[in-house]
Amino acid sequence: MNGWNGRLLRIDLNRHTVSTEDIDPQMAKDFIGGRGWAIRYLYDEMDPRTDSLDAENKLIFCTGPLTGTPAPTGNRYMVITKSPLTGAISCSNSGGTFPTEMKRTGFDMFIFEGKSERPVYLWVEDDRAEIRPADHLWGADTHQTVETILTETDPKARVACIGPAGERLARIAAIMNDKHRAAARSGVGAVMGAKNLKAVVVRGTQEVSLANEEEMRELCQTVQAEVGRDVKKGSALREYGTAYVPEVTNELGILPTRNFQTGQFEGVESITGQALKDKYLIRPKPCFRCPIACGRLTRVDDEGYEGEGEGPEYETIAALGSACGVDNLAAITKANYLCNELGLDTISMGATISCAMELYEKGILTDKDSGMALRFGDADAVIEMVRRTGAREGFGNLLAEGSYRMAERFGHPEYAITAKKQEFPGYDPRGSKGMGLLYATSNIGASHMAGDVAYSEVFGVPEKLDPLTTTGKPALVKRFEDAFAVIDAAGLCVFLSVRYLFDPSVELWPTRLTQIMNLATGAGYTEETLLEAGERIYNLERMFLLKAGLTKKDDTLPARMLTEPLPEGPGKGHVADLEEMLPEFYRLRGWDEDGIPTADTLKALRIDLLNPLDGDCDD
Amino acid sequence: MAQTWIHAPPAYEVSCVKVTIKLLNVYRKYLPDDAQGSAYTLRVARGTRFSELLAQIPVPMDERPVVLVNGSTPAAHQILVDGDVVAVFPSIAGG
């Protein structure tokens, strides 16, 4: 095959054996790759009602057809499994260098099954795969793990691993690759830990074969140059990283502040991209073959917060910063480094601590429960709670369960600002209503990465929409969700669309993307069939959720979002207005009033014969 | 006796409107020297409309920045009033 390698590696962790399988070309095309292939296999091979930490849950690493090719930003991979945090699907995405190295082994996908009796890691060197003992690595943080593994495999190998948080089954544990990059959300690290799988190590030397190499390189170079030129003009992402965002969301009154009690933070000037650049930035860092370079290589020398690494990203600054009332950028950056070393999702970690802070300030939580005072604005408390969560020590043991389960333990789950028990990212949906619909309908729980309509509501890409209205938002959210499904499955970074997503004058989406896909794979996509594939992926994920037991009751937002208006800022007086958007969204999706895809919808997408919901399909 | 005006005459003061201009992230480089943080005060004639204000903002408009007044996108003909906060940032996705 071209673009795709066309092979997967199946790892039986019970027996410590590996086997290879070929990929069916029709399935490959229909589901694109990455996120699409993974849901197809999971839906076929496992019962969605399986407990996520059970050996029967399957863990899939998957690249896309454009991973490791000349396509600009063609360097992403995904981790798909049933989530310990949400009970829905996890689709965590990461960049760095690991994805391209994995693609170059000659395998597109790794499927991990069962559970190893002892800690192990997988070592794949081109077409040779081996399961090796990892007892000596168990307990090591992610950086130590990488350093040790490189001495026993190949110094040029790339490593994806869990830290102590994943080993201890923290529901907010991440899988870190290349030390500082994260497949972070939805507790994928805990699934890896439950399988006693410490790391996945790859070394690949096989270049990806392309259907039409010359034309592909030419088109990709053109797009690469255009994105690069464009980034140079208004280079917020290169100059500041995603840390350029706090100023913007604060201006719109949607920057999460003190557990979403409000959307404007008085300390915002201390946590801007400018502040990061002035104080801690060494230089921008691109992922492999990316023209944008949004990554931040940073270092903090402030006493008590010393450290070095990558980040923080916007989401981290919001969750571990403004959401916790903290304006100390050195502390936020240190907390970010700790999360990376321990293997924790910075969004869920920060949001869970901010939830605990609200419970503490309201007297629902006391010193006896938390072990120390947890007040908004206390930067050292944030850092201490991150440490304790990684070790599951004291109150950290509860924080490791995520904000919903933690708050529920104290009788007040309504203070956990989540959708499907996953913590919100950095956009208050009362002031960005499309985002509210996205959080409620994303198949992975609250996430901006499921279809970031903030591009339009907040950033003006391709044009600035009014974030305070609901009109047209159902169609907008559907469009973004389907587009992001395609981009995820293809192995590209969504930042490729820095300015261009849906801008017809640039023709990136879907025209040039379709061309790039065809030049790489030779699969003969049309723009329609490519878009349809995105819709197919999203709907099959939905079917998985429904079979796992989720219902339309889970397509909702916390009471604070639905009934407590924003107290200040441009969105003052507004609530999330979800009920105005959800019925139309269901209709546009071709679902019934209960949010179940109709038989006609499934048939049109050709996923009707796949284990339908028993007795629930429309006839 | 001729009067010497030491400040601008009151009539002139009353016919001006003071707005705050905030130039965010990469547009900071266009801030005037007396800016406070990322903001400075601009006095414009009473009755100035939003579309006319754009010409007075030192950011290249061909880059299609996002320009908000008090956090939302104004109509071109919107008249500026005392205390309006105008924020300018690049339209670039990611975060």
Task: Describe this entry's structure for a reader.
The complex is a heterodimer of chains A (619) and B (95). Chain A is an alpha+beta fold and 619 residues long. Chain A folds into 3 domains: 197 residues, 4-Layer Sandwich (Aldehyde Ferredoxin Oxidoreductase,  A, domain 1), CATH 3.60.9.10; 188 residues, Aldehyde Ferredoxin Oxidoreductase Protein, subunit A, domain 2 (Orthogonal Bundle), CATH 1.10.569.10; 172 residues, Aldehyde Ferredoxin Oxidoreductase Protein, subunit A, domain 3 (Orthogonal Bundle). Chain A contains 25 helices and 17 strands. A 6-stranded mixed beta sheet of chain A has the order 2-1-6-3-4-5, sandwiched between helices. A 6-stranded mixed beta sheet of chain A has the order 8-7-12-9-10-11. Chain A has a 3-stranded antiparallel beta sheet with strand order 13-14-15. In chain A, helix 2 crosses helix 20, helix 11 packs parallel to helix 13 and helix 20 crosses helix 24. Chain A is globular, with a radius of gyration of 22 Å. Chain B has a 4-stranded mixed beta sheet with strand order 2-1-4-3. The radius of gyration of chain B is 16 Å and the shape is globular. Chain B is built from 2 helices and 4 strands. Chain B has one domain: Beta-grasp domain (Ubiquitin-like (UB roll), Roll), CATH 3.10.20.30. Chain B has 95 residues and is mainly beta.
CATH class of the largest domain in chain A: Alpha Beta
Q: Biggest interface pair, residues each?
A: A-B, 43 and 24 residues
CATH H-level superfamily of chain B: Beta-grasp domain
Shape of chain B: globular
User: Would you tell me which CATH topology of chain B applies?
Assistant: Ubiquitin-like (UB roll)
Radius of gyration of chain B: 16 Å
The CATH superfamily of the largest domain in chain A is Aldehyde ferredoxin oxidoreductase, N-terminal domain
Count of beta strands of chain B: 4
Order the strands across the largest sheet of chain A as they lie in space: 2-1-6-3-4-5
Instruction: Give the uncertain stretches of chain A in residue-range form.
Output: 615-619
Instruction: Tell me the strand order in the biggest sheet of chain B.
Output: 2-1-4-3
Arithmetic mean of pLDDT of chain B = 85
**DSSP, total strands of chain A:** 17
The helix/strand series of chain B, from N terminus to C terminus, equals HEEHEE
Q: What are the segments of chain B in which pLDDT stays under 50 over at least 5 consecutive residues? A: 1-10
- CATH first level of chain B: which class? Alpha Beta
